[in-house]
Amino acid sequence: MEYVSPEGLRLDGRRPMEMRQIRAEIGAVSRADGSAIFEMGNTKVVAAVYGPREVNNFSICISALFDMIAIRCEYSMANFSTGDRKRKPKGDRRSTEISMVIRQTMEACIMTHLMPRSQIDIYVQVLQADGGTRSACINAATLALSDAGIPMCDLVTSCSAGYLNSTPLLDLNYVEDSAGGPDVTVGILPKLNKVTLLQMDSKLPIDILENVMQLATEGCKAVANYIREILLENTKQLEYRRGV
Ligand code: UDP
Predict the structure, then answer these.
(1) In the chain, what are the domain boundaries?
(2) Which residues line ligand 1 (CB under 6 A)?
């Protein structure tokens, strides 16, 4: 199948290096300490953060004993998030793996030493799935953690890129993702210039991997710029409401 036309356009009309439209909203869940909705094209996710709070589970008291913080993350897909009704929204192998990946990625930016003997819970749920849900969840979690006032050394942002028809493609949608080509998901700390996440689901020659990774990193930087704007806008609104 042709994923890039001779005119250089993808199936959804994007250029190879073009991201889908992104949109974010802070404070979508009133009961959570911090929350956000993040959309990348038709992929839409919500993140809710609770904490830092006292550890409430015996199994994670072990971390508290060693003056550590327990960060928990749960990724799930709503039954209505995919074309076919999703029968198992969480607890399957894929959800367990993505929960772990998101937790490890978020741990890289949280200043855990400032909150010993406490716990932070991050819940991310996919409302609409169209490829790149783990990236969207990481971006939503970053915003939700910021909204909860959790101290972080940088904003983690994520984006994916793939390689189809001998062309590197930024931010794959479901049709491109399911084409069977490589899909590289990258997470970065943009200010510290560090990579915190790198996942790939098939083989790629090393020189092409570098190009695809570079493209995904550019996507992460674009997301970081957008997230900074949203956070700034949110802070201005809070100041306005407080009459500062
Ligand atoms: N997907 C689906 N049902 C599932 C799992 C995945 O429809 O049970 C779709 C969904 O659109 C998802 C895409 O397949 O975004 C690619 O899934 P993958 O495991 O590669 O993770 P993602 O790209 O979402 O991080």
Answers:
(1) 22-242
(2) 82, 86, 94, 129-134, 174, 177, 183
Counting from 1 in the atom list of ligand 1, the atom nearest the Cα of 83 is 7
Both structure tokens of 151: 């101290």
Note the pLDDT of residue 201. Answer: 86
Token look-up 């960060």 returns 71
ipTM, two decimals, is 0.98
Looking from the CA of residue 136, the nearest atom of ligand 1 is 25
Site to probe by mutation for ligand 1, drawn from 133, 134, 172, 185 as the one with most ligand atoms within 8 Å of Cβ, is 133
| pLDDT at residue number 89 | 66
pLDDT band at 117 (very low <50, low <70, confident <90, very high): confident
Query: Which ligand 1 atom is the nearest neighbour of the CA of 137?
Result: 25
Question: What's the pTM value of the predicted model, to 2 decimals?
Answer: 0.95
Cα–Cα distances in angstroms (integers) from residue 61 to residues 48, 66, 69, 96, 105, in the given order = 22, 9, 10, 22, 22
- 3-class secondary-structure state, position 165: coil
Average pLDDT, the chain: 92
Q: Which CATH number fits domain 22-242: 3.40.50.720, 3.30.70.890, 3.30.230.70, 3.30.56.10?
A: 3.30.230.70
Tell me, in angstroms, the distance from the centre of ligand 1 to residue 34's CA: 26
Neighbours of 198 (CB within 10 A): 14
Give the pLDDT mean for 183-202: 95
